[in-house]
Design goal:
Elements: H1 11-29, H2 40-45, H3 47-61, H4 101-107, H5 132-137, H6 147-152, E1 159-164, E2 167-172, H7 180-194, E3 202-206, E4 230-232, E5 235-236, E6 242-243, H8 260-270, E7 280-287, H9 293-299, E8 311-315, H10 318-323, E9 337-342, H11 352-356, E10 361-365, E11 369-370, E12 384-386, H12 391-404, H13 406-423, H14 426-442, E13 455-457, H15 459-463, H16 468-477, H17 496-523
Parallel strand pairs: 3-4, 4-6, 7-8, 7-9, 9-10, 10-12
Antiparallel strand pairs: 1-2, 1-3, 2-13, 5-11
The chain binds 2-acetamido-2-deoxy-beta-D-glucopyranose (NAG) (5 copies).
Organism: Glycine max
Protein name: Glycosyl transferase CAP10 domain-containing protein
Keywords: Membrane, Transmembrane, Transmembrane helix
């Protein structure tokens, strides 16, 4: 049995949180005077006000959203490849010239092999969570983005990335932990290869640390400056950071987590090994409790001689596992419990997509952060909500409920793994990046140019010097052929009432569970 061998949280990500905690606090203090968190309930109460404000911003941005739908070309061409399948439009899909590190080492310059090419029109509308792109960029919808705003985002950025005519330039300010920046930049280069000629000129500042820093309150009110547009991996209700897919989609070399397109296939197979009914009927979690108080609080729910809250919780022995080459970290073999707990560490955790894809029912401890896809998750549909301030009783009830409603509980697990498999597959990760960067670039009020210290970047400049699993994962996630269709069609922005209704619905599902939970405990002696 390998049921305890689960990788949920990674030591490096988490030790890093502890190590940089103080430093980061200092960084945070730049914004500190205006810190004020905005709980969800407050957000709902404030909504009528936002409705009015939002209505203006909304009408101002309507026009810019139309561009994505009709971008495809109707020109047809002689098929020179086996890829053209549409009877009406045949696309030319020349493979990109293969990597040649000998040539790169000789000249030290990036090859010029990226070219425009024809695509078939997109067939699909993007998943619903793409609508949040409009919301994330709304702070600049009226004003546009100026050079001054971008420069102000430099304060905490690890790097500036510039795209000009489909070529990428990089200016590094500081290195984050491990290879987060490397694989994030690698991911953007793959996007350029996937959609050559379709990414407009732009520049962006990227902060690879965990916590969002652009506090909304600071930019609220008359005569305040506009917020800096800063890209990072997660956000929360009090901040305006722009969320972008994290590095793990191209691989996490330090802990041997493979590129997402490979892992996703393995996970799909892994979930079929033990049917839901035959899995352990408990809530399982394994990770590093030290990184967050809320996790230490969770550990108190562990089974012992004196109590059983239906929770089986394990601390990860990262030192031993790293020594053993993470050979116990095979994610697809970890779907052995009916219920899996997701709990944030110091911020969002990349493990959420692995937990959700297990076909187990995810018990999701009320989160504070979101990443680019998690705003698409609906309580009771994709996961079961767990109270943050009463975890043990909440878990006990959830597992009892699930074991008494097996079909419904399994259904929640299944809907979540289907969502991850179908709506968070790599094609859509790239399309999300595509639409986010296109919408972002539309807002530019100046023409970006190559800054003095920026150097050109290409896959050769990254991979030729790389070694070990970094190189391996890069080669595995390399885009070798441009996409043969356009990106999916961007859904329209939420109109304010719909957005309000969506948030309301989520809130009331959670309240529904809380009221069931309350009656359960009221009846229990
Ligand atoms: C290119 O240069 C890098 C670093 O200088 C080296 O590691 C690599 O082996 C070279 N590759 C080839 C094909 O010469
Ligand atoms: C790589 O580049 C070198 C030097 O330009 C050339 O001699 C070699 O044929 C190229 N290899 C491939 C596989 O294209
Ligand atoms: C939780 O309890 C189990 C069973 O007693 C034990 O193996 C495990 O180490 C405990 N977890 C923690 C984090 O103490
Ligand atoms: C993992 O590696 C360790 C040490 O190399 C070995 O003892 C152990 O049997 C391996 N475990 C698995 C599941 O392969
Ligand atoms: C470029 O880098 C050098 C050395 O790191 C630094 O002194 C200089 O200020 C930088 N120039 C710009 C325009 O950022």
């Amino acid at each position: 049995m390998r049921k305890n061998n689960e990788v949920v949280f990674t030591p490096q990500q988490e030790e890093n949180h502890e190590m940089v905690g103080n430093f980061r606090h200092f960084k945070d203090s730049i914004w500190w005077p205006v810190v004020k968190s905005l709980p969800r309930s407050t957000a709902v109460l404030l909504f009528p006000v936002m409705l009015i404000i939002g209505a203006f911003a909304y009408t101002r941005t309507l026009d810019t959203h139309r561009m994505f739908s009709g971008a495809s070309s109707s020109k047809s061409a002689q098929s020179t490849t086996p890829y053209g399948t549409s009877p009406f439009t045949v696309s030319i899909r020349k493979p990109i010239a293969p990597l040649n590190c000998t040539a790169y080492n000789l000249t030290g310059t990036c090859p010029t092999n990226l070219q425009d090419h024809q695509n078939s029109p997109a067939t699909a509308t993007c998943p619903d969570y793409f609508r949040w792109i409009h919301e994330d960029l709304r702070p600049w919808a009226r004003t546009g983005i100026t050079q001054d705003m971008v420069e102000r985002a430099k304060q905490t950025a690890n790097f500036r990335l510039i795209i000009l005519k489909g070529r990428a330039y990089l200016e590094t300010y500081s290195r984050p932990y491990q290879t987060r920046d490397v694989f994030s930049i690698w991911g953007i280069l793959q996007l350029l290869r996937r959609y050559p000629g379709k990414i407009p000129d732009l520049e962006l500042m990227f902060d690879c640390e965990d916590w969002p820093v652009v506090l909304a309150d600071r930019y609220n009110g008359p005569n305040v400056e506009q917020p800096p547009p800063l890209f990072r991996y997660c956000g929360n209700d009090a901040t305006l950071d722009i969320v972008f897919p994290d590095w793990s989609f191209w691989g996490w070399a330090e802990i041997n987590i493979k590129p997402w397109h490979i892992l996703l296939g393995e996970l799909k197979e892994g979930t079929t090994r033990i049917p839901w009914l035959n899995r352990e009927p408990y809530a399982y979690w394994k990770g590093n409790p030290a990184v967050a108080e809320t996790r230490q609080d969770l550990i108190k729910c562990n089974v012992s001689e004196n109590q059983d809250w239906n929770a089986r919780l394990f601390a990860q022995d990262w030192f031993r596992e790293s020594q053993e080459g993470f050979n116990k970290s095979d994610l697809p073999s970890q779907c052995t419990y009916r219920y899996k707990v997701y709990i944030e560490g110091s911020a969002w955790s990349v493990s959420q997509k692995y937990i959700l894809s297990c076909d187990s029912t995810t018990l999701l401890v009320k989160p504070k952060y979101y990443d680019f896809f998690t705003r698409g998750l609906i309580p009771v549909h994709h996961y079961w909500p767990i109270k943050d301030d009463d975890k043990c009783r909440s878990i006990k009830f959830a597992v009892d409920w699930g074991n008494n409603h097996k079909q419904r509980a399994h259904q929640i697990g299944k809907v979540a793994s289907d969502f991850i498999q179908e709506e968070v597959k790599m094609d859509y990760v790239y399309d999300y990046m595509f639409h986010l960067l296109n919408s972002y670039a539309k807002l530019f009020r100046y023409k970006p140019s190559k800054s003095a210290n920026a150097t050109e970047l290409c896959v050769e400049s990254m991979v030729c010097e790389a070694e070990g699993s970094v190189k391996k994962f890069m080669m595995e996630s390399l885009v070798k052929v441009p996409a043969n269709t356009d990106p999916c069609t961007m859904p329209a922005p939420f109109d304010p009432p719909t957005l309000y209704a969506t948030l309301q619905r989520k809130e009331s599902s959670i309240q529904q569970v809380e009221s069931w939970e309350k009656s359960y405990w009221d009846i229990k002696p």
